[in-house]
Amino acid sequence: MRTVTWDPETPSVRMIDQRLLPGELVLIDLWSPQEVADAIRQMSVRGAPAIGATAAYGLALAGQLSKAQTAQDLWHDLENAVDILRRARPTAVNLSWALDRLLKSAHAVFQEGPSAMRQRLVEEAQRLADEDVEINKRMGAHGASLINDGDTVIHHCNTGALATVDYGTALGVIRSAHEQGKRVHVLVDETRPRLQGARLTAWELAQYGISYEIITDNAAGYFLSSGQVAGVFVGADRVAANGDVANKIGTYMLALAAQDNDVPFYCVVPTSTIDLRLSSGEKIPLEEREPSEVLDLMLKGKPVAPEGSQARNPAFDITPNRLVTAFVTEVGVLRPPYREAIAHAVKESQEK
Ligand code: MRU
């Protein structure tokens, strides 16, 4: 089942409301770019590639809803929708990447008029979503060689089918190794504060029949230092040209602990997550979310934090490239020095 799809009849964007998992599997329909942007901001859909595909469908929707009679007027409506969608979340570059790709495809048929542009937007959004699944499977195939039969690995956040259109990035690599018949055991970081690991990754692994145990985020160092872990697998929301990685908060500490214990740290990313415009990680915008996501934790029906507490809630952090053992992309496994390897991989992906 895909995380997000296009319904051409209505037209609307249909997605799994990830906020309700694992308790309930509910599909929601979104009818406007504003609703799509809200769903991204509120994390009904999340994960960099899934955000990209959803934004693409959101822009296709804007095309369908626009009453414009001329290409110029339609372009104006599309630009307004792009504005709304682009601001939904700041860190995952796949959002802007997908919107730019769709705008470019519509512009290519500008002279043919608004109907051709509308049709092109839907086709391009569909193509982007289909390619995402294919790219994930290619990354899975490349990355599976990094996992040996009997390995235990640590996984952070959710990078599976739910974080993409289908199959997954880092979780896709683990799935691929499992599908090859390797026995792999996953220690699932619960991933405070939104618990994408405990809620979503555990839910997916159970469905795939992959053995797992949920661990608290702060237990990862213990497992790494006690020789129980063969590798750490994470995704990313944005990778700078030098290989610095923006990913879910806690990734940096995990990478530090992995390096201190000589455990390889792998980052699995489609080239659409690489931002060559940014030379290093310090330029990546990092989202800080509502303190309520930290403070609303309840135990036995009561709030954990004293009333009136303040909190900070950065959603992402930067892992410097020196802590990354290798990147897995759809064009292969990249090893340092990353600036050259990354530039080459992006070029190769564009030639395909
Ligand atoms: O805040 P989220 O849940 O959108 O964060 C998701 C992550 O950090 C993932 O690791 C990243 O997007 C890669 S998903 C294939």
Distance between the termini: 27 Å
Number of strands: 16
User: What fraction, in percent, of the residue positions are helical?
Assistant: 40-55%
Hetero groups in this structure are: 5-S-methyl-1-O-phosphono-5-thio-D-ribulose
Instruction: Kindly provide the name of the CATH class of the largest domain.
Output: Alpha Beta
Structural class: alpha/beta
Strand order of the largest sheet: 6-5-4-7-10-15-16
Mean pLDDT: 98
What is the name of the CATH topology of the largest domain? Rossmann fold
Q: Into how many domains do the coordinates divide? A: 2
Output the helix-strand order: EEEHHHHHEHEHEHEEEHEEHEEEEEH
Features:
alpha/beta, 352 residues, binds 5-S-methyl-1-O-phosphono-5-thio-D-ribulose, 7-stranded mixed sheet, Rossmann fold, Four Helix Bundle (Hemerythrin (Met), subunit A), 2 domains, single chain, 11 helices, 41% helix
Describe this structure in words.
The two termini are 27 Å apart. A hairpin with a 4-residue loop joins β8 and β9. This protein folds into two domains: 134 residues, translation initiation factor eif-2b, domain 1 (Four Helix Bundle (Hemerythrin (Met), subunit A)); 206 residues, 3-Layer(aba) Sandwich (Rossmann fold), CATH 3.40.50.10470. The chain is globular. The protein has eleven helices and 16 strands. With 352 residues, it is α/β, with parallel strands linked by helices. Helices cover 41% and strands 17% of the residues. α1 runs antiparallel to α2, α4 crosses α5 and α5 crosses α6. The strands form four sheets. A seven-stranded mixed β-sheet has the order 6-5-4-7-10-15-16, sandwiched between helices. A four-stranded mixed β-sheet has the order 11-8-9-14, with helices on one face. A three-stranded antiparallel β-sheet has the order 1-2-3, covered by helices on one side. The structure holds 5-S-methyl-1-O-phosphono-5-thio-D-ribulose (MRU). 5-S-methyl-1-O-phosphono-5-thio-D-ribulose binds next to α2 and β9.
